[in-house]
Structure formats: structure tokens, C-alpha cells
Design goal:
It is elongated and about 70 Å long. The strands form two sheets. Strands 1-2-3-4-5-14-6 form a seven-stranded mixed beta sheet. Strands 8-9-10-11-12-7-13 form a seven-stranded mixed beta sheet, with helices on both faces. Helices cover about 25% and strands about 30% of the residues. Helix 3 links the parallel strand 4 and strand 5.
Length: about 290
């Protein structure tokens, strides 16, 4: 008998194809989180995001068994009028005995040309790993302000539209597309705020801060419109939904509006791009909205 222990097989790296996707999502349910089913995991990857996706990420196999993987959600978005393609990293999970292979997965994914790369829910370890691959941390601060009554809301001509069909009709073509791409996700709330010809699409989730109910805004079609119409939006959220504050990532705003304050201490999201800034990185078309986190 040999004195040398049997060497562990070198895992093969393979793309996660659509036919592999459910198997990979079963692996996630068993090893990353059983809070959602494999079908719910898979739903995040199956959305139509306007791009011909090359894969759903990459996985490690040993003797036919999945032992790790890194998921990818692809999307095409207009940024300052120019189409840009994004690869959003998500659901990175490797069994302990193959943890040394994790970097191979990250390199395989981020070596694909033509994409801006993001990870919007990294653990501290993942964030450090990706920063080694030239990812940059984004501003983690969040702006919060109270939703106050505004008796002149209707007289100002500003309207808040919540009817799902009317929202689509009020928006520009690009904003309407983003709305239609996300309206089926039951955990998201949508509205349009503004005046005819100048409506802003707003996506939010109900949230609590210090025990108080509020709106955590995940995205909007225009930061300028969002800030301009924040008073009417706050009035609506307060009286129609009993939400007493609005919260949004500071990096998405042109400025923190009065009487807002900034909170710190949140985990940094990370991205890698040669041409885009952190304000260009949207939460839409990512795991932030594709999963009920």
C-alpha cells in the first residue's frame, strides 16, 4: 500500500448552461441557502435582460458532481444614452474541500471580454478577493429623509401613478422597458412620479429602520427627476402606505436632499469597469432585485 494519500481530483471548470442551471441551483439550495427553492434560484438567472448571455456563470465538477460555482446575471442597459453590457456576480459557493479553487472560478468569469462586472451582495471575503482582481468598492453610505405632508401636492401638478398599466404609459421608452422587465417580481413596488412628459420611474421595497416603516428605494429612471419630485413622492408614501422615511444609496443621488442625513457602516458593493462610475451601476437587472433579499 502506498504511503502517499490519494490526491484530490482537480475539478474541471465548465460554463453553467441553461440545461445545467437547475442542477446548479439545487447545489445552491443544499450548500448556500435553503431559504429558497432551486426553482426560485433559477428564476433569477432566467430573466430576459436584453443581452445574449454566454452562460449562467461557471461551475466546478469532480467526477460529474458539482462541487462549486459562481453565478452570473447578464444584462444590457443604456447608460448616458449608450448601450452597455453587464455581468453581475452572484451565488458564489464552493465546498470547503475545494475552496482553493475559488479564484479559478472568479478568473474564468471576469476574463470574459465586453462586460462591466458587479457584485452587489459580496461578503467581506468575496469583496477582498474581487478587489484583488481590480474591482473597486463603491460608496456604502445611504441617505435617509423623512416623508413629510405636502398639502400643495395636487395643486403643483405633480402626480404619483401606481396603476400598473398607467405607469408604463407615462414613462419614456427606456424607463418603460426597465419597468416591464421588473414588474412581475412580486416583492418590488413600482410607481411613477412627476408631470406629463416628465415622469420618473421609482422602484422600492418596504423596509424598517430603528423599528420605523419606510421605503428603501432600489432604483429610479433619473436621479435629477427623483430629487426634483421627492416631496410629492414622500407625501404619497406617507399617506398611502404609512411609510415615514425614504432611504436610498447616496452614490445614486446627485445630492443628498434637505433634510436628509447620511448613514454609514454598510457593506461596500464592488464593480470593475474601465469607463463607468459607481453612479452608473444600477441595482436593477441584478440579484438585488431578481431575488427577494
Amino acid at each position: 500500500m502506498s504511503d502517499n494519500p490519494k490526491k484530490m481530483s482537480q475539478p474541471a471548470i465548465e460554463p453553467i448552461t441553461d440545461s445545467d442551471l437547475l442542477d446548479y441551483c439545487r447545489f445552491l439550495t443544499r450548500n448556500l441557502s435553503n431559504a429558497r427553492t432551486a426553482d426560485e434560484w433559477a428564476g433569477a438567472f432566467r430573466q430576459n435582460r436584453g443581452v445574449e448571455k454566454p452562460n449562467n456563470g461557471f461551475m466546478l465538477r469532480v467526477e460529474g458532481q458539482i462541487v462549486g460555482g459562481i453565478g452570473a446575471i447578464y444584462a444590457r442597459r443604456l447608460v448616458r444614452g449608450k448601450p452597455e453590457e453587464f455581468c453581475n456576480i452572484t451565488s458564489w459557493c464552493v465546498l470547503d474541500e475545494y475552496r482553493s479553487q475559488s479564484m479559478r472560478l472568479a478568473i474564468a468569469l471576469t476574463s470574459q471580454p465586453g462586460f462591466h462586472f458587479t457584485d452587489l451582495t459580496p461578503t467581506e471575503v468575496v469583496s477582498r478577493t474581487l478587489q484583488f482582481l481590480k474591482f473597486r468598492p463603491m460608496n456604502e453610505r445611504q441617505a435617509v429623509w423623512p416623508n413629510l405632508p405636502w398639502p400643495l401636492s395636487r395643486l403643483s401638478g405633480v402626480r404619483v401613478i401606481t396603476d400598473l398599466n398607467a405607469i408604463e404609459a407615462s414613462l419614456s421608452p427606456e424607463a418603460a422597458r426597465a419597468y416591464l422587465d421588473h414588474r412581475h417580481l412580486s416583492w418590488l413596488n413600482h410607481l411613477a412620479v412627476g408631470r406629463p412628459g416628465d415622469y420618473c420611474h421609482v422602484v422600492y421595497k418596504k423596509n424598517r429602520l430603528k423599528g420605523l416603516p419606510g421605503a428603501f428605494v432600489l432604483g429610479f429612471s433619473s436621479p435629477e427627476q427623483f430629487v426634483k419630485y421627492r416631496t410629492a413622492l414622500g407625501n404619497h408614501l406617507l399617506f398611502s402606505n404609512s411609510l415615514v422615511f425614504t432611504r436610498v444609496e447616496s452614490r445614486l443621488l446627485t445630492r443628498v436632499p434637505w433634510p436628509g442625513i447620511e448613514l454609514a457602516g454598510f457593506r461596500n458593493k464592488v464593480f470593475r469597469s474601465d469607463t463607468l462610475a459607481e453612479a452608473d451601476i444600477s441595482n436593477l437587472y441584478t440579484e438585488i432585485v431578481a431575488l427577494d433579499l
